[in-house]
Amino acid sequence: MDMIEKALQIASQAHNGQFRKGTQIPYIAHPIAVGMILMKAGYSDEIVAAGILHDTVEDTDLTIEEIEREFGPKVAEIVAGCSEPNKSLSWEKRKEHTIEFLKTASSDIRAVACADKLHNIKSIIDDYEQNGEAVWSRFKRGKAQQGWYYTNIVESLGNQSTFALLEELKREVSRLFL
């Protein structure tokens, strides 16, 4: 079976019954969109598969070991790099960790993280255009803290070099928060 198709099947099963925050949109729409963003940008099948699987370890019962067994060490490393290591920490501590980690992460991890954030920002913008300021009530932290997070993510992702997806993320973050 093709690696991307396998990732779609495993992620779909893992995220079964989950929905996007504050919506009735099945959660799997997000990882699929992340994979499509990466595919359109010309990334390899391994990176696309990692994009599709990027939230499975963080948000489902799937483990890094299972990802490695099914997809190999490179995909597992990218998924691990895109997963928050300690969900028991406060939102601020988790986000600060992500911001610092991405400054020196591999280009593959940064590409998947960027595609993830890009899809999230585009979703927020779509919701904002439909619902206005009420969109911020879906989040544990409001507009100011989301703006802090995304602005710092853009800076971290660009710490080593810039790339096409990052330029698009910069534009969307500026559009929403600046």
From TrEMBL:
Annotated GO MF terms: guanosine-3',5'-bis(diphosphate) 3'-diphosphatase activity
Matching SMART domains: HDc
HD/PDEase domain mapped to chain residues: 23-130
Keyword Hydrolase: yes
Record keywords, A-Z: Hydrolase
Organism superkingdom: Bacteria
UniProt cross-references to InterPro entries, sorted A to Z: HD/PDEase_dom, MESH1
PANTHER family listed in its UniProt record: GUANOSINE-3',5'-BIS(DIPHOSPHATE) 3'-PYROPHOSPHOHYDROLASE MESH1
Record protein name field: Metal dependent phosphohydrolase
Organism, scientific name: Neobacillus massiliamazoniensis
